[in-house]
Amino acid sequence: MTQDYEVEFVDRGDEEARFLVRGITPAFANGIRRAMIADVPTFSIDTVRVIENTSVMFNEQISLRLGLVPLTTDLDDFEAGDEVTLSLSVDGPGTAYSGDLVSSDGLVEPAEDNVPIIDLKDGQRLEVEADAVLDTGKEHAKHQGGVAVGYRHLQRVEVVGDKGEFADDETNILRGVIEESAAEHAAGDAENGELVATEAFDNDLSQRYPGKEVEVSDVPNAFVFHVETDGSFTTEELVLRAVESLRGRATELKEAVEL
Questions:
Q1: In what order do the strands lie in the sheet with 102-103?
Q2: Is the same domain home to 55 and 178?
Q3: What pLDDT, on a 0 to 100 scale, did the predictor assign at position 3?
Q4: CA-closest candidate to residue 177, choices 200, 158, 198
């Protein structure tokens, strides 16, 4: 039996996005989150060969910094275990940035050019070669393309009455996304069924529904994911690859059971 899911974006960007998925269980939502963190491979510098280093920083410290530089990853052209060589050759005075890394393959380059690596003084020099390997986050955290991945229930707010005439207008903090169900009581333009990020009203329900008593409830089997990548690939590709990983593991389990 095929299960239908509904997906709707709250906000969408190349490296950060929020989207709603309806029709999934908490276990499935957590499976998607874990797959985005651990199953989608990215390139990361793994081995560093220091040719010359006259800076004040130890080779190991430089290697650690290089390993944390996000690299663009094209999963259609590479597979786990593939390697790409990058080189860095800089002279002081000045700061060496990730953009100074030169790759042997144009598909694997620093995702950001302005990540500082080291500040060199006059007369100091750094020259290294590094091998980047394609691997997954479950092997090492530096391969986690999803640097901030989380989810929470979609919430619905019901207006249950007016506040008392002499009631204090206290703040009522809520974080996440609400599904508008009381548009007639909301401050400003609103429509029922609209998805509203709580930042739109400073996370304060007393501003969204002034003078009203409200109740908040979770919408069953509806979860809002907040995903941020390190630039290795887009949020859309990260999500799709994570779902593909889950599908592949489910297929393997099904085939194993049927044997």
A1: 42-53, 125-135, 83-91, 102-103
A2: no
A3: 60
A4: 198
Domain identity same for 114 and 184: no
Say what the alpha-carbon torsion angle 130, 134, 136, 141 is, to the nearest 10 degrees: 20
Q: Is the pLDDT of residue 67 over 70?
A: yes
CB 195 within 8 A of CB 179: yes
% of residues, the chain, pLDDT over 90: 78
Amino acid type, 113: D
- Using alpha carbons, select from 169, 148, 145 the residue that is nearest to residue 230: 145
Nearest to 71 by CA among 47, 98, 49: 98
Whether 177 has a pLDDT exceeding 50, the answer reads yes
Split at pLDDT 50, 70, 90, the class of 248 is confident
Q: Which of 234, 253, 257 is nearest to 245 (CA)?
A: 253
| Whole-angstrom distance, CA of residue 163 vs CA of residue 169 | 8
User: What CA–CA distances, in Å, run from 8 to 16, 20, 111?
Assistant: 15, 5, 27
Task: Find tokens 């590709």 and name the residue.
Answer: 237
Q: What is the CATH number of the domain that holds 48?
A: 2.170.120.12
Q: Domain of 107?
A: 43-136
Tokens linked to 17? 């996005």
Q: Are 135 and 41 in contact (CB under 8 A)?
A: yes
Do 132 and 54 share a structural domain? Answer: yes
What is the rounded distance in angstroms from the CA atom of residue 149 to the CA atom of residue 137? 13
Structure tokens at 242: 């994570």
| pLDDT tops 80 at residue 164 | no
78 and 199 housed in the same domain: no
User: Hey, what are 257's tokens?
Assistant: 């059971």
Choosing from 102, 136, 170, the residue where a domain stops is 136
* The pLDDT value given to residue 1: 38
